[in-house]
Amino acid sequence: MTPMATAEELSFELLEDRYSRQRMMACWDQAKVSKASILVAGAGALGNEVLKNLALMGIGRILVIDFDQVEVANLSRSVLFREEDIGRPKASMAARALRRMNPEIHVEAIDGDLETHLGLGQIRDCDLVLGCLDSVYARWVLNRACWRAGRPWINAGINATVGEICLHVPGQGPCYECGMTEQMWRQIHDRRSCMSLPKNLPARTVPGTAIIASLTAALQVNEALAWLHGEKHLPSGEMLLLSLHPYSLSSFAMSAKSDCPAHDTYLPSIFIQAGPAGITAADLLRQIPEAVSLQMDFDVLENWTCSDCGEEPVGRRLSVDSGSQLPCPRCRAERTPKFIHEIDGSHWLAARSLAALGVPPRAILRAVTSSGIQYLELTA
Amino acid sequence: MATITIKIMTHDRSRCAEVTLPDSLTVGALVYQCQKRWQLDHSESFAVRDLLRNRRLTEDDSLSSAGVSTGTELQIFPLVEGGSQ
């Protein structure tokens, strides 16, 4: 019989791979991390740091959305951007840098607006959403979208010396909107003219350094990892407040509003194998039993009415460009817009494709049927 | 009208005051007074937390309905919105 080797005689070789150091932590489950799918909304200062951390740790699928382009002022706080990226879309440039950083992960980019280019189905595909946005309005939009999609999101914000992080889990505690102040509501209302036309207001330029962005993003990602591992550090709705001057880190709770209009979830029961470009509202309604009409979460500009020249049909989603059409092209008089957000099968807009009306890919829509509201998802 | 005496400070402790106020004053009105008197950044939104109970107070609540009483210590902090630029 061969004598057993002593411990000194055995040679232990650590299996070194990309993730071996983080796998050494008892609390770490690389399989969970590699299987995770995370949406990052915003690829600026915070988003860059968040995306970098997610990619380094091997989050399996990252979807990043940003409508903006890289500017020279981003370069002091954005680890993923280079001078040659100036003028190019932030989301695509960030995605390209992440693929180079970690070829083992899957990264997708949407160079578009959160409100008009992201369907609720795309949010439902993700385990978690990280908000790295720069305005109250964008956060309000994302909060509503996450609640409707039934997905948790972690909001973060920064100024020069303060960072804030807050996890919001639909159905558990307060949402972002529950904590909005009167001044924050004013900022949202200021985005619409007296005729309810959206104004193109640039986001407020906030001072900041890579220091506060990286610290805040690290805490935001840490909270995301805790969530993925089933170990919430912060209860839903509790805010983590980080200060650099003087140094402090504290957290505190807030109350949910029982009448908050953001607290509704769209649970789709009908799945339509089509994209918005390939189906009209009328076709869609024909596929749903007892369907009466289709409700959209946004205003469609149905027509302009000039008191002298009459009506001009439009039939497009209301956008910041709509305001430029306010003067009548014939007499230059100010026209009145007519909005619609519910279309029945006989309406002239029902013959248009959903994409032409402004419905994004993977949208979840509300159909009014004779037996109540049905939620349907465009899956193509 | 009942009055209460409380301590209020900014999150960075650069400003601090002990004030006597009607307990019917709303949290939002208190924030507005702090912004005005302390010349806090008017483009930023602020909220208030009770440091002893570690809770953010609701803007529409009066100090009394928010559970603020004499001896309470409050902190005013910004709701920061930067991140994507």
What labels would you give this structure?
heterodimer, A: 380 residues, alpha/beta, 2 domains, six-stranded mixed β-sheet, 14 strands, B: Ubiquitin-like (UB roll), five-stranded mixed β-sheet
Protein architecture, described:
- The complex is a heterodimer of chains A (380) and B (85).
- By secondary structure, chain A is of the alpha/beta class.
- Chain A folds into two domains: 233 residues, Rossmann fold (3-Layer(aba) Sandwich); 109 residues, no CATH class.
- Helices cover 25% and strands 24% of the residues of chain A.
- Chain A contains eleven helices and 14 strands.
- In chain A, helix 3 links the parallel strand 1 and strand 2.
- The longest helix of chain A is centred in the middle third of the chain and has 19 residues.
- Chain B has a single domain, classed as Ubiquitin-like (UB roll) (Roll), CATH 3.10.20.
- Chain B is built from one helix and five strands; from the N terminus they run E-E-H-E-E-E.
- Chain B has a five-stranded mixed beta sheet, covered by helices on one side.
- The longest helix of chain B has 11 residues.
- The termini of chain B are far apart.
- The mean pLDDT of chain B is 94.
- Classes of the chains: A alpha/beta (380), B mainly beta (85).
